[in-house]
Sequence to fold (311 residues):
Amino acid sequence: MSGLTLKGPYWVAARQHRRALWAVPAVVAAALVAVIALRIGAGDTDTGGGAGVAWTNDGYLLLRICMEKAATGLLFLPLLVGAFVAGPMTARELESGTWRIALTQSSTPKAWLGSKVGVAAIVSLLGSAAFVAVYRIGWARVTGTYRFHWADRGTYEATGPVLAAYCLLGVALGVLIGQLVRRTLAAMALTGILTGLVMLALGALRWSILPVETGTVPLSGHASQAMPYSALMIDTGLVTSRGEHLPEYVCSERFQDTVNCPAGIDVTGRYAEFHPVSHYWPTQLVESSLVLVLAGVALFAALRLVAARRA
Fold:
């Protein structure tokens, strides 16, 4: 991790930030030990889908609390990566002028920037993958329960490759914004904000990537019965004999009755639009690809910018 096997500017970049780089495996190791201890303390009692004796188990409740905090923390990991790359790794050297020293060692501006990107990208990719693996060990004990559904914000990011993709986006935005701003704190703040905004925007759009599936039940039933237990519900309503979808309130607003509807409306049942759990991996892969495309655009702009820079 200290860069002993690296050469040239890559060795210098790893050497400069060796403390931060060593912190990554240290945190991963500590997290692994903590999750294993929490799993042991939680026992193996079946949660029964969120009900049963597990909720009286203090060890199980402690595991849930820690896993909720871990999911929130991993949501901020790409922001932290981007802020570090933008500030200490890029903007600080431009602000102080120390980046010119690298150019005196037969190094080009592109090589200088490439070393930052290479070291940060490798550590971010390996570190985020390790955090996902550790999180999944704890998540396996609480999966499917309240706040730990596969599609919940936090859990979704912390259990798949999309977390690594967002970390790489943070690296690309960091080297770009670090060059543009050239002020350490300002670059860190701006990169963190932009990375977070991208995560919010794509998070709001992710369930539009794949088409929803639709299930129906009789009018006397409940919409949740029209889809698998593990599915993510997107929309519900009433359905007519011709397959037309109507909002839930069509009957209740006129007759205050959700079971009996006027014949003129021709309501025959209820529908539910949902994403089954089989949509998890395709959505993860498509979203990760979109994020990597954005990262590639940002990195291309950063390389073009540094190529035009002169000492």
The chain has two domains: 8-208+279-307, 213-278. The radius of gyration is 25 Å. The mean pLDDT is 87.
